[in-house]
Specification:
With about 450 residues, this protein is mainly alpha-helical. The chain is built from 18 helices and four strands. The chain is globular and about 85 Å long.
Length: about 450
């Protein structure tokens, strides 16, 4: 009853609706004007949808340990001696959603089901499959999103978001041309048009942003994906052009005069765009370095990215935009990596998921920008060991938590593989400064 009447309740906050966070929130079937699950699903169908929501958001019991699975698609074993490791929450979410979709498809044939219900369930199922991450589940996720796309008839902002997802999935599956076609469709649709045949043409980045807040967020996310694609496929000039045009277009979006005076929905929108601009700035710094531009130019872009990402993280947690001076343990700022999300976001059904992901991503981006600045400063003539160390200190301050004098471990959300690189760089720079002090 809590899930039905509270967690899946209709969003009535007009400020949230103005910034279109209600449209971005996950839907779990039912009429968007009433909330909850679709009565036409029947007792078992509605209960299964709520069970899927609970498995995803509350877990599956006292343990969230991963389990071996070959049940993501009901197609049997994936091969002798092989094991597909899947988080238990995703396993149960996917299983419940598959059952709910089967029920919805039967009900839909009678004409009683709300026209959005099957589409929303397919989208939730595709998301769960995407998060599983195996090639098989990614292919299955793409198929489900294609079903959603068919139902949307290539119109509206939901079609744009679906096209962007299909672009990302095709990229992950190695289908570059298909990815570009889907990203082109997504960009077209954020402009308020109808998806047209792209015919293998590269995506065209608009000079001005759309007016809709959700369309702006969808567009910039698509451009981040496009930027990463060009950069990782060694199309460096195309990547640079994409990044510079995207940043120029983002710069034309007027931010609020003060985040402190902005409403939480408006502030979250501004912070979302600011973080995506920091991602593109990191991409641009890397692309410029790969094209043998002066190191100082890349460092400048990385500094901008670090400052923007830190601002996002501090705003979402309410911390002061001040980083302590000093070295070694004093700079392992646990509060940066562990400070909780502000209640105004964590208690909002519509904003909680985006704000939580944004805080995690901002910390990762800040750590990455500072780490890259440390690396480039090591390559620069005239850069002091102390300056290099400060960069690496800032990186581990965002990625780790102090466990003792001169010791730290990866914070929640930091991959162990990434942490080993960051900590190794920090220790090397610290040792270099200590050796210099002893001379």
């Amino acid at each position: 009853m809590w899930v039905e009447h509270v967690e899946l309740a209709l969003e009535n906050d007009q400020e949230l609706r103005q910034w279109e966070w209600d449209l971005e929130a996950e839907k779990w079937s039912g009429d968007s004007t009433r909330g909850g699950t679709d009565p036409a699903l029947g007792f078992i169908g509605r209960h299964t949808v709520r069970a899927a929501w609970m498995a995803q958001n509350w877990g599956t019991g006292y343990s969230t340990a991963v389990i071996g699975s070959n049940a993501y698609s009901g197609r049997g074993p994936i091969g002798p001696g092989s094991l597909n490791v899947v988080d238990a929450r995703l396993e149960h979410t996917e299983d419940f959603l598959r059952t709910a979709i089967s029920i919805a498809e039967r009900k839909n044939s009678t004409g009683k089901l709300h026209h959005q219900t099957l589409e929303e369930l397919l989208a939730r199922h595709a998301t769960a499959l995407e998060r599983m991450g195996s090639p098989e589940s990614l292919s299955e996720s793409r198929f489900q999103y294609e079903r959603v796309w068919t139902g949307l008839a290539g119109k509206g902002i939901n079609a744009a978001r679906t096209a962007a997802k299909l672009g990302d999935l095709n990229h992950r599956l190695g289908h570059a041309n298909d990815a570009l076609d889907w990203w082109s469709r997504a960009i077209q649709l954020t402009r308020g048009g109808i998806s047209q045949a792209v015919g293998g043409m590269p995506p065209v980045i608009p000079e001005s942003p759309p007016t809709s807040p959700l369309a702006q967020r969808t567009l910039i996310s698509t451009l981040v994906s496009l930027s990463a694609f060009y950069a990782t496929s060694r199309q460096l000039r195309q990547a640079q052009a994409t990044e510079e045009t995207s940043l120029k277009m983002l710069g034309s979006i007027r931010p609020p005069e003060s985040l402190a005076s902005a409403s939480p929905p408006q502030a979250l929108h501004a912070l979302y765009l600011l973080h995506r601009s920091s991602l593109i700035s990191i991409h641009l710094a890397e692309v410029l370095f790969a094209q043998r531009n002066p190191v100082s130019v890349s460092i400048q872009w990385l500094g901008s990215a670090a400052e923007s990402s830190e601002r996002v993280a501090y705003a979402l947690t309410g911390l002061s935009l001040i980083y302590p001076n000093g070295s070694d343990a004093k700079s392992l700022q646990a509060s940066s990596a562990e400070a909780p999300l502000l209640p105004v976001y964590s208690k909002s059904h519509s904003m909680r998921k985006t704000a939580t992901s944004l805080l995690r991503d901002a910390r990762r981006t800040a750590a990455e920008a500072w780490n890259l600045m440390g690396t480039l400063n090591e390559l620069s003539d005239g850069s002091s060991p102390e300056k290099v160390l400060r960069c690496y200190e800032r990186a581990i301050g965002w990625a780790g938590v102090a466990t003792g004098p001169g010791r730290a471990e990866a914070a929640e959300g930091t991959l162990e593989s990434d942490w080993r690189v960051l900590w190794g760089n920090y220790c090397r720079a610290r040792n270099a400064v200590e050796r210099l002090a002893k001379r």
